[in-house]
Amino acid sequence: MSDRPDTFRPAPAAPPEGITVTWRRSLFGLGTAFCFAIAAIFIRAGLEDLPSPLLGVTVGMVVTAGVYGLILIFRGGRSRLGPVSRDIIFFQLAAAVLVGLSTWARWIALDMAPLAVVMALGRLNVPVVILLSPLLVGRQQERVTPRVWLGAVLIIIGSLILNFYA
């Protein structure tokens, strides 16, 4: 192409909306899946001699809070603390209650059912997230495509197969 002004040049491609998924950006998600899976194995082994799953959850939450506290101490001045709106506080408190309840339910389920079944049924959260996230955080941040729904359907089918045939 020449540099003459009358020559047509296509406009540069606009960056895609939302978050671009790369392997590097997926590492924390993959780490989450790995840690979550390994933790379930340790939970199952630890429940063998505990009188109640609630005791296990309590110990786990106390240790987790301690680790997070240490992380905050070591991060020190790098944390950006500023004014926080009531909406944010509400959403964080609601999330904390739901995480607490789901963790407790997971520990009870791990005490009552095979690991594969509990973990597979736990993945049924994916369709709920796909359905609700665009409504709660906005369609610009959470784009739900037919490919995403296909993945959710495959997760549901896999969960049902593991649940009924494991």
Class from helix and strand fractions: mainly alpha
Nearest-angstrom radius of gyration?
22 Å
Strand content: under 5%
Count the E strands. 0
Give the topology string: H per helix, E per strand.
HHHHHH
How many domains make up the 3D coordinates?
2
Cα end-to-end separation: 63 Å
Major beta-sheet overview: none
User: What general outline do the C-alpha atoms trace?
Assistant: globular
State the helicity in percent bands.
55-70%
Unreliable sequence segments: 1-16
Residue-averaged pLDDT: 83
**Oligomer kind:** single chain
Q: Count the DSSP helices.
A: 6
Word description of this protein:
- With 166 residues, this protein is mostly helical.
- It folds into two domains: 24-77 and 84-112, no CATH class; 115-166.
- The chain is 69% helix and 0% strand.
- α2 crosses α3 (86-112) and α4 (115-122) packs antiparallel against α6.
- The longest helix has 27 residues, at 86-112.
- The model is unreliable at 1-16 (pLDDT under 50).
